[in-house]
Amino acid sequence: MTSFNEWIDKIKRKDGDIDYIEYNEFSNVKTVGKGAFGIVESADWKSYEIKAALKTLISNPTIDDYDLNNFIKELESLKKVSFHPNVIGFYGITKEPLSNKYIMVLEYANQGNLREYLKNNFKFLKWSDKIQMALDIARGLKCLHFKNIIHRDLHAKNILVNNNRLMITDFGTSKQLSESTSNSANSTANGLGMPEYNEPQLFKIINYKKDKKSDIFSLGVLLWEISSGRPPFPGYPRNVLGSHISYHNLRENPIYGNPQEYQQLYQECWDSEPKLRPDIEKVYETLSQLSQISLRESSHKPNGFTEEALKNWWSNNIKSNNIRSRNNNNISYLEKVEMQLWMNLFLKKI
């Protein structure tokens, strides 16, 4: 039986299909995360003067040639799409000399994953920002599906953010469409670790094989999460979540104030029936149209008359006594209410 490291050596000898990078190219290596499938570190890549992510691959002593062949295909799949700005960049493989473990060299994301990004930034996001985030994911998934790659494990922690640009990552479970492997009913690696993003069929059908429409279901949940700013089903018992999604049609409630077209899109994406879900081309087209509408609407509002500018104007005038304050120079609750009512009327007129 071939060992993990011996098989990675075969990657190294594959005539440049996957690049090998000397480990001494990296400095200032720091651990930034650890998961079931590897340790992630940040490092400075000296030759290119950029920061890279190093993902240590945890070896499996019982892995067989079939699984290793699939792993090779996964790396080659990632190589095919890593040129895309909304897919994590895969630069090659390196080897840590002390541990002799092989490491994937990936694009570094300076703002963490989507779950962390929404937690830290949601209150600052405009609707146009949210649409752009949704478009980023759709563009990345469109690239994968064009190359006949199914991700199979899309969720908020597998979307990374770098300079406000979203990238799909973690192809540890992505497969070529031509492969005949199917999901194990009890495998975290096959996506059951995040049941809220999985389609009902995965919980109903033994050895269910995911396809492109499986990714679309997960995308629908991500679109909802971007619009809500929170994880789906917080506090819901994990041991029953899958069965409630599949047998009780459990879905999150729409977010008040979101465009109806956006709400309809993610509800179509998470339809229980796979054939009723749109393909990625349709999702991308709808999001592009919503983005154009958002840009047109924002361009109609004159410069200097944003809500923030009006709040500042009101506050400054109260503090300078141009407008009488009921609480010295501080804005009272009543004045905040009056200010909001005035702004709402004013913004409607412009």
Automatic annotation (TrEMBL):
Pfam families: PK_Tyr_Ser-Thr. ATP binds at residue 55. This is Kinase-like protein. Gene3D superfamilies: Transferase(Phosphotransferase) domain 1. GO terms for molecular function: ATP binding; protein kinase activity. SUPFAM superfamilies: Protein kinase-like (PK-like) (SSF56112). Residues 26-290 form the Protein kinase domain. Transmembrane segments: none annotated. InterPro entries: Kinase-like_dom_sf, Prot_kinase_dom, Protein_kinase_ATP_BS, Ser-Thr/Tyr_kinase_cat_dom, Ser/Thr_Kinases-Pseudokinases.
